[in-house]
Amino acid sequence: MTFGSHVDGVVAVGRELVNVATPGERQGRSYDVPGPAQLLSGLADAVRLSGRDARVPDAGAVEAFLDLARRVRPVYEFVEAREMDQAAEVTNALLDRYAARPRLESHGGQPWHLHFHGDRRADASGWGAAVAMGLATVLGSEYADRLGVCAAPACDRVFVDVSRNGLRRFCSEACQSRVKAAAHRARQRA
Ligand SMILES: [Zn+2]
C-alpha cells in the first residue's frame, strides 16, 4: 500500500531521521547518535529518501535535525502502544511548531502535488513541516496504525509498514531473522 509517492517520501525521511538521530538500541546493540561526520552522512541518506533533489544537510542544521528526530520518535511509540490520542496530540504539536504551509507545486514534469514548506528561519533542517504533514496524513488515514517500533529484543528502531497485510513487526530483515533464530533455538532446547 502507499500514501501517495510524495507522502511516502516525507514519511520515509522522518522514519530515517528517528533511526539515525535518536539514541537507544539497534538490532541487538545499544545505539548512540554517531559523531558529526557520520551523522551528516546519515542525515543526507535520510533526506534522499524523499525522492526529491534535496539539499544536503550542512553542519549548521544538525541541531535542528536532532531536535526534529527527538520530537518525531514519540509519534511512533504512541502508535506502537495504540495510544492514538497521544500520537495525534504530538503530531498536532509538530504541525504547530513547524507551521506547515501547503502549496501545490508542479516540477520535473510531475503532476501538481502538495508540498509543505515551513519557515526556514524557524527550522534550519527545512524538513519539520514536510515530516509533520507526512505524519498527519498517515494518522488521519485508515492506515494510522502502520507506524511501529521494532518488536525484537534490544532494538527500538522505527518503521513504516507498507505491506499489504499490515503485520510487520520488525525494523529490518536483520531483526526478523534474529528473532526467528532465537525462537528456533528455544524450540530445540524444549
Ligand atoms: Zn529492529
From TrEMBL:
Domain of life: Bacteria
PANTHER family: BLL6575 PROTEIN
Limits of the Zinc finger CGNR domain: 146-188
Source taxonomy: Bacteria, Bacillati, Actinomycetota, Actinomycetes, Micrococcales
Protein name per its UniProtKB record: Putative RNA-binding Zn ribbon-like protein
Record's signal peptide: none
Pfam families tied to this protein: ABATE, zf-CGNR
